[in-house]
UniProtKB/TrEMBL annotation, chain A:
Domain Cytochrome c: 23-113
Protein known as: Cytochrome c
Keywords: Heme, Iron, Metal-binding, Signal
Native source organism of the sequence: Ilyomonas limi
GO MF: electron transfer activity; heme binding; metal ion binding
N-terminal signal peptide: 1-18
Length: 133, 436
């Protein structure tokens, strides 16, 4: 299991359900603000000991399939250290978000907060969703 | 019930505190005065510690710095401090400090290879907790631990699922120890549908409450204990009130009301709601989590939106009412009823509360990194809560909780009646004294 498995522990720790009327036009930044920001914070730095940062971590920058699966499934109660730190809060599953919403959010995260990683496409989210449960 | 006036005074007090600490931050060498009742006190300005803002006549000194995540602490009559660390450092999760006549502490030892939060002394024993177990160590006549390596394990295998897993401790005067077992959840929502609360909430069977154990019996499992009170999301600060002879706790209220129900809660409401509540608990008490929360502005117990609430629908009246309701998200981590003689009469038997400060207020700035005080008379609050010690974060407003360099966590009373405050973010121990 990845040492960085919990990196997205709380990604989108807020509501799991999209407000459908907003979804098609919302930007990744707006969606991040709506679903992720209260836990992971505006700068992606998270909250020490509680909610993990999204900045320059291999889980955010690494395997997209794993990253998408994490967002869809949430953390459960599993606690795995991230770079030697553990984070106490649980991230709820975000499977109620649409494929394009998750793609926009992850693309935003992977290209902000000092991150420079490739975009996540709607097709990639769709494919990953089929492998999750 | 105190009504809107109480709230207004609370927020006014917070505003004053903020102004005061801004002043002291910009010019730490100058005493700043924000009102007749509040003035800044100079600290010993060693290292990185904060300059605290305190009521007139009080001053704060830094007695120790650079500790690793000091959580709760206890001070002996001999001026030794036992500090529980959140994680063991070099195999030691309890640090021993000795405070000299000049109010400076030196580290004199350490033991206990586990991190945790709870620590207290009662009847010749030091009690301490990991996030799973409760230990006790016999003390000698000078309150020194006789055998650091062989504690008795009083309770073991307590529910620990990571979130809200600290095990705060307090004893009564009848041989019982009370342990918080926090719920590993915000509001007991269904997995995969966090807008729908589980009914009934299965978490409450093994967490989200206070368990009572025999203080002198070894190897008690959670089921061996008495499920003393329920419906408490997470408690970190707790104390025994010797006036009422009852248990008082501080609950950490739920998060994310706006996200749960944007049509019923604005982001601003979500930043202020629900109340952080002080409860007095008797056996069988139910504080209502996850089904309800307390709205400190409406002074009502309201149904949580995950259970059909809309910000107005009132909850079952049988859930207990809070003793004091503070603004949301300030994270009360320490509670202490003051029984010393150093502070003015107003403080006698009143409650000090260490607030760790918020993280769940976006898009509003974070707040609540402070020590509050509530005066008590005959076991009940006799006035509004007020800010007692502020300035832990240097007075600048910020959005990111990581910018809070000092966060109050534990409280302890010294033998002379001084008040000790631990700061688990910056590793500082402050000692607050009063001089006429």
């Amino acid at each position: 299991m990845s040492k960085h498995f919990l990196i997205l522990l709380l990604l989108g720790c807020t509501s799991a359900f999209a407000q459908t009327k907003q979804t098609t036009t919302a930007t990744g930044k707006q969606l991040y603000a709506q679903y992720c920001l209260t836990c992971h914070q505006e700068d992606g730095e998270g909250v020490p000991n509680m909610n993990p940062p999204l900045t320059q971590t291999s889980y955010v920058l690494g395997d997209k399939k794993k990253l998408i699966a994490w967002v869809l499934k949430g953390s459960g109660n599993e606690k795995v250290p991230i770079d030697g730190n553990t984070y106490s809060n649980n991230m709820p599953p975000q499977s109620a978000l649409k494929d394009d919403e998750i793609a926009k959010i992850l693309t935003y995260i992977r290209s902000n907060f000092g991150n420079k990683a490739s975009a996540v496409s709607t097709a990639e989210v769709k494919a990953a969703r089929e492998t999750v449960k | 019930m105190k009504t809107s006036l109480a709230t207004a005074v609370c927020f006014c007090a917070m505003a004053i505190g903020t102004i005061a600490c801004k002043n002291s931050s910009s010019n730490p060498e100058t005493e700043s005065t924000s009102s007749a009742a509040q003035q800044s006190a100079s600290n010993n300005k060693a290292g990185d510690s904060a300059t605290l803002t305190l009521p007139a006549g009080f001053s704060a000194a830094t007695v120790a710095e650079n500790l690793s995540g000091p959580r709760h602490l206890v001070v002996t009559p001999q001026n030794d401090i036992y500090v529980k660390l959140s994680d063991a450092k070099n195999g030691k999760g309890i640090v021993i400090l000795h405070v000299d006549g000049n109010g400076k502490a030196t580290t004199t030892g350490g033991f206990g290879d586990y991190g945790g939060t709870g620590i207290t002394i009662k009847n010749g024993y030091l009690y301490a907790s990991s996030n799973d177990d409760v230990y006790r160590y016999k003390l000698d006549a000078n309150n020194r631990v006789i055998n650091e390596n062989q504690p008795e394990k009083i309770a073991t295998g307590l529910t620990n699922k990571g979130m809200h897993n600290s095990k705060s401790l307090v004893l009564d005067n009848a041989g019982n120890i009370y342990v918080n077992i926090g719920a590993p959840s915000n509001v007991c929502a269904e997995q995969g549908n966090d807008k729908k609360g589980m009914q009934p909430c299965p978490i409450l069977e093994t967490a989200g409450g206070i368990w009572m154990f025999k203080a002198d019996k070894q190897a008690q499992k959670q089921n061996d204990g008495v499920h003393y009170a329920t419906g408490l999301r997470n408690v970190v600060g707790m104390d025994w009130n010797n006036v009422t002879n009852s248990l008082f706790v501080m609950q950490h209220g739920r998060d994310n009301l706006h996200n749960a129900s944007p049509q019923n809660y604005t982001e601003q409401q979500s930043a202020e709601l629900p109340a952080e509540c002080m409860y007095e608990l008797h056996q069988g008490a139910n504080a209502g989590w996850p089904y309800m929360y307390y709205d400190q502005n409406q002074h009502k117990k309201l149904v949580n939106p995950e259970y059909g609430g809309d910000g107005k629908k009132e909850a079952d009246a049988s859930y207990i009412d809070p003793v004091v309701a503070f603004p949301g998200h300030m994270a009360p981590d320490g509670l202490l009823f003051y029984t010393g003689n150093m502070f003015p009469e107003k403080y006698k038997n009143g409650a000090f509360i260490a607030f760790h400060g918020s993280w769940n207020r976006a898009p509003e700035p974070q707040k609540g990194y402070l020590v509050a005080f509530v005066p008590f008379n005959n076991g009940k609050p006799s006035g509004n809560w007020e800010i007692f010690a502020d300035g832990f974060t240097g007075g600048q407003e910020f959005m990111q909780p990581g910018k809070a360099r000092h966060r109050p966590c534990g409280l302890a009373q010294g033998p002379d009646g001084s008040l000790y405050v631990s700061d688990d973010a910056g590793g500082t121990i402050y000692r607050i004294t009063y001089h006429q």
